[in-house]
Structure prediction request, 83 residues.
Amino acid sequence: MPFIITEPCLEVKDATCVTVCPVDCIQTTDDDKMFFIDPVTCIDCAYCESVCPVNAIFDEFTVPAKWREYIRKNREFFANSKR
Ligand code: SF4
Ligand code: SF4
Prediction:
């Protein structure tokens, strides 16, 4: 049950979550407008969820319906980067 970053991160992208992640699985690029969580590496500790200033992070099963597409977006960011 990985954690997922959703729409409120867009343009905020302040990286607070990155500083608390114990397995360094939250990443982005200069061209992306938000951060993403690698679902394979995430250990479900929830540290990131509690520090996000805009409540952009949810566990996979509690992502609001309107932001479910971000589950795929987080996964695809890492699938693409490993090609
Ligand atoms: S839940 Fe824990 S391991 Fe997963 S991205 Fe957040 S801080 Fe990192
Ligand atoms: S703490 Fe929240 S707003 Fe900041 S980069 Fe992480 S998910 Fe985005």
Observations:
- The helical segments are 16-20, 47-51, 69-81.
- The mean pLDDT is 95.
- Residues 69-81 form the longest helix (13 residues).
